[in-house]
Design brief:
heterodimer, A: 176 residues, mainly alpha, 2 domains, two-stranded antiparallel sheet, 7 helices, 28% helix, 4% strand, elongated, B: alpha/beta, N-terminal domain of TfIIb, Dimethylsulfoxide Reductase, domain 2, 7-stranded mixed β-sheet, 43 strands, 26% helix, disordered C terminus
């Protein structure tokens, strides 16, 4: 049983969820876009710093470039078809937290360390996406894995003050 | 809820009335009216399973008994919406799709809510709303804080409209009648059939509800186009206070206006049968004003004296309440006018003077006798008159318990009283920003006379078949009209006799506007695309006109409004912007206006001729059918959250009751929950009785609003009874409104029983002295600041976070309206459980309003107390949870982790405040026996977990809102400023009774409220005398009630001796 402050060993569980790699309707390559072409993650997932959800780019974001770029490829033709018919594109969801968990992307993306540097990169949780073609789930996304990060010491204990953690570890941080 | 043993129950049953009216009422309610107050769960279960008590409305008992199984057909019929895939229990979850926009709207970020400003359409008060939408879907309605009518607050009905929007039983398609059946039909066919019909005749009428905006103007244009006279527009509201006040001002000043009230500037308010807090003319505005009026500041505070025969919610909030005989309101008003007039300091001249003089002379002998019959001595009136004259005061008269033949007369006397007091243009404005009447007085009477000649009648957003007394024969008239077209946002009784039943837009889907105060316009805009195949009523008319080749020059109703608002721009003086920009700016802000001025007050006429005769006081029992403060005339009865909110005074949910004074009941040998037969000249009705202290012994109160018998609405069908069948056709001769109060009634006991689903099973506060506290003004003057957190205990010191969240609830301001309950339920996805489960004590509301009576049974003091989770620092619930599902957060929140909860219910047993709620069932999608509750997944707040069976839940102090505010603060690198986060209950409270914030910040409003001399903790003992109660140290503190008249100190005020 986990109580605040305990370490949770997820090693027995992590394989249950990490590595989920479903087929997508088109073989969208993150390696090409984010790796080779060095596009910023937030160019497409632009909700990450503004919203609890990072968001999957709308079709017109794709078509902004692909109206002109590589229009002959089959995948792009398929995109174009959907776009012309005003039909949304049904991707398969990879990262999914249970319904009783609230995870806001915004605060994580904007989190700064004491020097004002970004504390987390997208890759911290999503893994080396820039090396994947279609995305697979890299991290276990289980509570113990979250807590490992949250419970890291931010300021060590002094005789007058208890140590502070990097992020709150109370239950209602995520569960409400 | 206590569950005593059988022996105790038997003992309680045997107890009889001790004839001692001043007996300590709070402790022993059972001694007044013996009856099944308490019930063991097994007993109730057995009762429900046996199918008794059956509903007295002739509804069938459930032959299978209490059916907890899924009624598959109900399930399928109710919820055809796609449900989200459930969470997987297996390793590989079901494959879910993530479907982004094709073209993402430029102002939308998925996950970030968008707020649209609009105007509430639940009644004609015209409150401004902000609708929170997520991904295009409204999830919560809140009052617009900038809107001058409601200033951010909203009543329960306004809050519940989210359920109205997503209600699964709204009509999906237009329907046409074939014999007794309504069959689906295409919109094109509707237009062509009705277009043809409109071509052939000009005998066309429109019957609709109240509106102050451009809506009625549009209907008049339609009528003109089809060649019908302007008089063929009938506007009617069951809340005839609008008509009564408007008619009285028409008589007195020559124009049908309603004065805009500003109670807050007065010191003394005298009400005679008024119920402005329940519905009145603008309940939220009135509650806001009353809250400011009652604010205690440096020994100054407003005082409210009420004379009434019924125990209304408004009267329950009065500082001094006189119980008067039914029908004597007019006499009381005249006696008060007399005392005012005779007071040497009253300076009144001109018409008011002559009117008062002649009136008092005419009725001299009657009034002389009235002191004796009313049992209120002249000295009391004189003393009140002196008090009124010495302070800034006003009179408010009449309400839904006074819709009798004399309703308008009472308003006239009220006008006279206010003239004597000089209240006009000080607290009641008819010259500077007055209110428009949303209806034309007397339209119902005209309708009844003229409608039989009509060929086509459109009934739009109005239910005259249900809300008028049966004796007016409205249903029969509708049946006789060859073509009745019913256009409603939710199916109602008009559909049952109409030729066409057409789905109209819900308020949140429609265009519209209101002008609640002259010159002040409030815009209504759609915030979602229609959820069903509905149309805006005005657009339906435009299509019909177009089909009959009588086109109006508007493409749709929006175009009509767009044209009309040009004049508003001219009027409001915003001429520097292009019109289109102006229109868009108004849409964004929600309202625009300019104070208008007229000189109506100077045109006062002598109206004493209308007051020549007074109806003699009748003796014997009289029946009153006031409007229900939750669902008004019945328009909200299909919304489960309102049904389960419970009436403010009786706390009865789902049912209709006949409230009778406990002493009268004892005299008649009646018991609580016994069914009686009420019979009047017009009809009979079997209804269960509820013993209600504070009623006049001669009055029987049976509220209306419930009692629908239409199987199409699962929620309201057979919930309660409609008392309107008991009223013979009679009307107020001045305003022509139907009489729904003060008719003689006979009561006969029956052998039937019906257990009313009351939330509060008893009035007992177990003799605790630290639940409700009251303080009188002199002791408040010398009272010191409090330090509630100074409690000596041996508990280990808790970890203290950056904040400590706390709440303070002002019992002096709480009016018991229940808006917080509705707001909380909508915000936090709190399920409604249905009548049977309420009887078992399994209601789920996170915040409840307890109501307590003190003192004399005939004239008790009433207190309301909202109780939510107290967020104890030393929480008994946390200590007993075996799985750490409920833990303490360093910021003072008592956190509930649903996914850890295994449902032992230890915490609920440990909680001394009884605020924990257990999910006995997964309350969703119509699984709950007969009363299928709608839990449309689209109506859920996506930011709060939806709980399932076997899980404990309770108030979280809207932790989701807290998180959002903290994240925002983090972004800017500051602390959360005071007031930046509001809980749902606080946000909607029409009387500003709730404050929330950081207790570490000594300057925050909640900290100051916690240090207030009136502050105390629930079950926190008497700290001044060294008794600290349970030492739970809640984060929620209460502010005691102020006894402005130093009424008899209840026993529990005395220091606790131990």
């Amino acid at each position: 049983m986990w109580t605040p402050g305990d370490h949770v060993d997820d090693s027995t569980q992590s394989s249950l969820v990490s590595g989920y790699h479903p087929d997508q309707p088109i073989e969208f390559s993150h390696k090409l876009h984010a790796g080779d072409r060095k596009m910023e993650c937030e160019y497409c997932h632009n909700g990450a710093r503004r919203s609890p959800v990072a968001g999957i780019p709308s079709l017109n974001t794709c078509m902004g470039c692909h109206k002109f770029v590589n229009t002959d490829a089959d995948a792009i033709k398929k995109l174009n078809e959907h776009y012309k018919k005003n039909e949304p594109f049904p991707w398969t969801l990879v990262h999914k937290l249970p319904e009783y968990v609230r995870f806001p992307h915004k605060v994580h993306v904007l989190a700064k360390d004491h020097q004002g540097q970004a504390l987390l990169k997208c890759q911290t949780c999503h893994g080396p996406v820039e090396k994947m073609t279609t995305v697979e789930q890299w991290a276990p996304l289980q509570m113990g894995w979250c807590i490992d990060c949250h419970s890291q010491t931010k300021e060590p204990a002094t005789p007058f003050k208890k140590a502070t953690t990097l992020a709150p570890i109370t239950c209602n941080t995520c569960h409400y | 809820m206590g569950t005593p043993t059988t022996d105790e129950l038997e003992k309680l049953e045997k107890q009889t009335l001790v004839d001692a009216p001043h007996e300590d009422f709070e402790r022993s309610a059972e001694t007044f009216v013996p009856g099944p107050y308490y019930a063991a769960a097994e007993e109730v279960m057995a009762e429900l399973e046996a199918g008794v008590p059956t509903h007295v409305a002739g509804a069938k008992a459930n032959p299978k008994g209490l059916d907890f199984s899924v009624d598959r057909r109900d399930f399928m019929r109710l919820f055809t919406v796609a449900t989200a895939a459930s969470a997987a229990a297996c390793i590989r979850r079901p494959v879910e799709k993530a479907v982004p926009y094709v073209n993402q709207p430029i102002d939308q970020v998925p996950g970030v809510p968008t707020f649209y400003s609009s105007t509430c359409g639940s009644c004609a008060a015209g409150c401004g709303i902000l609708v929170k939408t997520k991904e295009g879907r409204p999830v919560k309605i809140e009052g617009n804080p900038e809107h001058p009518v409601n200033q951010g607050a909203l009543c329960g009905l306004g809050q519940a409209e989210i359920q109205g929007l997503y209600h699964p039983e709204r009509l999906k398609t237009p329907m046409q009648r074939h014999g007794r059946r309504l069959d689906p039909v295409q919109w094109e066919d509707v237009y062509s059939i009705l277009g043809e019909a409109v071509k052939k005749t000009s005998k066309i009428g429109i019957f609709t509800g109240g509106s102050t905006g451009h809506r009625h103007e549009f209907f008049l244009e339609v009528l003109e186009k089809v060649g019908a006279p302007k008089t063929a527009l009938y506007t009617w509201e069951a809340n005839s206070i609008w008509s009564d006040i408007a008619q009285a001002h028409e008589i007195a000043f020559g124009k049908a206006v309603i004065p805009r009230m500003e109670i807050k500037h007065a010191d003394l308010l005298v009400g005679i049968g008024t119920d402005f807090l329940e519905i009145g003319v603008s309940p939220v505005a009135a509650a806001k004003s009353l809250s400011a009026f009652r604010t205690h500041h440096n020994g100054k505070t407003g005082r409210f004296v009420q004379f009434e025969t019924n125990l209304s919610m408004t009267g329950a909030n009065a500082d001094k309440r006189h119980v008067i005989a039914p029908g004597s309101e007019l006499q009381v008003a005249l006696l008060l006018v007399r005392s005012l007039y005779e007071h040497p300091k009253v300076k009144v001249s001109g018409i008011a003077h002559t009117m008062a003089q002649s009136l008092l002379r005419t009725h001299q002998s009657e009034l002389d006798r009235a002191y004796a019959t009313l049992q209120i001595p002249k000295t009391e009136f004189d003393a009140l008159a002196t008090e009124m004259i010495q302070s800034e005061s006003l009179m408010l008269v009449g309400g839904s318990s006074m819709f009798s033949e004399e309703a308008t007369k009472l308003q006239l006397v009220g006008i006279l009283g206010n003239l004597l007091l000089g209240a006009y243009e000080k607290f009641l404005f008819i010259d500077r920003g007055w209110m428009k009447s949303p209806v034309v007085p007397g339209d119902l009477e005209r309708f009844v006379a003229e409608a039989p000649q009509l060929d086509i009648l459109f009934v739009i957003d109005s239910d005259p078949a249900f809300t008028t007394p049966a004796s007016w024969g409205v249903t029969g008239i509708l049946e006789k009209i060859p073509t009745v077209v019913s256009i409603q946002s939710f199916p109602n009784d008009v559909d049952l006799v109409s030729k066409f039943a057409l789905p109209g837009h819900h308020t949140l889907e429609s265009w519209g506007d209101e002008e609640p105060v002259e010159g002040f316009w409030s815009m209504r805009q759609p915030v979602i695309r229609p959820t069903t195949d509905s149309r805006q009523a005005e657009d339906i008319l435009l299509w019909i006109l177009a089909t009959s080749e009588k086109n109006l020059p508007y493409a749709d109703y929006h175009a009509f409004l767009y044209k009309k608002w040009e004049a508003v721009q001219q009027f409001s003086g915003n001429l520097t912007v292009v019109y289109d920009m102006f229109f868009k700016a108004v849409l964004r802000r929600g309202f625009i206006g300019k104070l208008t001025v007229q000189t109506l007050f100077a045109q006062l006429k002598d109206f004493s001729t209308h007051l020549k005769t007074l109806r003699p006081l009748s003796t014997g029992l009289q029946l009153i059918a006031p409007l229900d403060h939750r669902f008004h005339d019945g328009r909200g009865a299909h919304l489960p959250v309102l049904q389960e909110t419970g009436d403010a005074i009786t706390t009865v949910t789902w049912d209709t009751w006949a409230a009778i004074n406990p002493n009268t009941m004892t005299k008649m040998g009646l018991k609580r929950n016994q069914v009686v037969e009420l019979s009047t000249a017009a009809g009979k009705l079997k209804v269960p009785v509820y013993p209600l202290p504070g009623l006049h012994p001669d009055v029987i109160v049976c509220p209306r609003g419930n009692g629908h018998t239409d199987a199409r609405s699962t929620i309201s069908n057979n919930a309660g009874l409609n008392p309107l069948g008991l009223f013979a056709k009679a009307q107020d001769p001045l305003s022509k409104e139907p009489v729904t109060a003060l008719v003689p009634v006979k009561v006969a006991a029956t052998t039937e029983w019906f257990r009313l689903a009351a939330l509060q099973k008893h009035h007992d506060i177990a003799n605790r002295k630290d639940i409700i506290k009251k303080v009188d003004l002199p002791s408040l003057k010398v009272a010191k600041k409090k330090n509630l957190d100074h409690v000596p205990d041996m508990f280990p010191k808790l970890e203290e976070g950056e904040y400590r969240w706390g709440m303070a609830i002002d019992l002096d301001k709480c009016t018991g309206c229940g808006a917080c309950v509705a707001a909380c339920s909508i915000e936090n996805n709190v399920p409604q459980v249905g009548r049977d489960q309420v009887i078992l004590g399994r209601e789920m509301t996170w915040i409840r309003i307890d109501r307590y009576f003190y003192g004399d049974v005939n004239a008790p003091e009433v207190s309301f107390q909202p109780v939510n989770c107290q967020h104890c620092h030393h929480a008994p619930c946390e200590a007993v949870c075996p799985v750490f599902a409920t833990t303490h957060d360093p910021e003072g929140l008592n956190a509930m982790t649903y996914n850890r909860c295994i449902g032992t219910r230890y915490c609920a047993n440990a909680c001394p405040y009884k605020v924990r709620r257990f999910n006995w069932w997964t309350h969703k999608w119509g699984e709950m026996g007969k009363r299928a509750q709608d839990r449309n997944p689209r109506a859920m707040n996506p930011d709060v977990t939806v709980r399932t069976r076997g899980v404990m839940e309770k108030c979280s102090l809207c932790v989701g809102r807290l998180r959002d505010a903290k994240h925002e603060a983090k972004e800017t690198g500051r602390k959360v400023p005071d007031g930046a986060v509001q809980t749902a209950c606080q946000q909607t409270c029409p009387s500003n009774a709730i404050v929330f914030g950081d207790l570490h910040d000594a300057q925050s409003r909640v900290s100051r409220a916690r240090q207030d001399p009136r502050a105390y903790l629930l079950l926190g003992g008497d700290p001044e005398n060294g008794h600290y109660g349970l030492k739970t140290l809640p984060g929620v503190s209460y502010l005691s009630e102020i006894l402005r008249y130093g009424l008899h100190q209840p026993e529990h005020e005395q220091p606790h001796k131990e």
